[in-house]
Amino acid sequence: MESRSVLVTGANRGLGLEFVRQYAQAGWRVFAGCRSPKAAKELKALQDQHADRITVLALDVTDAASARTAAGKVRGEPIDLLLNNAGVGGPPAQKIGSFDYAAWLQVLDANVLGPARMIEAFIDNVAEGRDKRIVTVTSRMGSIADNSTGGSYAYRSSKAGVNAVMKSFSIDLAPRGITCAVVHPGWVRTDMGGAGGKLAPAESIRSLRALIGGLTPADAGKFFNVDGEELPW
User: Fold this and answer.
1) How confident is the model at residue 130 (pLDDT cuts 50, 70, 90)?
2) Mean pLDDT score across all residues of the chain
3) Which pLDDT band, with edges at 50, 70 and 90, does 104 fall under?
4) How far is CA 158 from the centre of its chain?
5) CA distance 143 to 149
6) Which residue from 136, 119, 215, 128 is spatially nearest to 176, judged by alpha carbons?
7) What is the pLDDT of residues 200-221, one digit of tens each?
């Protein structure tokens, strides 16, 4: 089988780094985007191991010019899978009466506008790919129906927002044969998830790769848990 290609954002740590590792080991060509390639030591080590498969791109999803510049470096390259993984958690303990609105805007910028910038910049690459998939890593904390505890205003609103954005993309890009979906990686032991997470990054990404690999056009616009369960909006 011919090799596939994937572009991963936020590729320098956590889930993004694990996506890069596993896709490279599986023989995929990987475009690994991160804000500061020179400081991404673990990513550089992976690139050294798979020099023929991993290309590191300087990429800041909060900067449209950065996304366009990165897209220019891969112009004409088919991308089978665009993985919007980059995101931020924001202030951990915002409470009513003491919201940090500037920080909230930063979360929305990265988590909602970031994937939109990526899709606009790389849509032609994806349209030229064979699989034609765009997947955004979201969170079940973005499910309005599943919110029974309140709080986490910035993070919840950003994930609910990107879910809505991806739903619209799934409709608007269907005529180009592109399948868009959102996935929840589970509670993972990363810097963002904390040490109490139920899944190791390798476990989460193995499951997500299997899920993503099985997506069909019938799955466009859906919201999946790491185990394949469809989640409520």
Assistant:
1) very high
2) 94
3) very high
4) 13
5) 12
6) 128
7) 889 999 999 999 999 999 999 9
Q: DSSP string spanning 172-190?
A: HTGGGT-EEEEEE--SB-S
What strands lie across the sheet with 5-8, from one edge to the other?
Answer: 54-58, 29-34, 5-8, 81-84, 133-137, 179-184, 223-225
Please give the model's pTM, rounded to 2 decimal places: 0.95
Domain-located, residue 91: yes
By DSSP bridging, strand 179-184 and strand 223-225 are parallel
206 inside domain: yes
Average of pLDDT values for 72-84?
97
Domain assignment present for residue 230? The answer is no
Q: How many CB atoms lie within 10 A of CB 66?
A: 18
Residue 105 is part of a domain; what is its CATH number?
3.40.50.720
- Element of type H or E holding 82: strand 81-84
Q: Does any domain span residue 163?
A: yes
The residue whose two tokens read 């990363």 is 190
CB atoms within 10 A of CB 217: 12
Domain, as residue range, for 116 = 5-225
What domain count does the chain have? 1
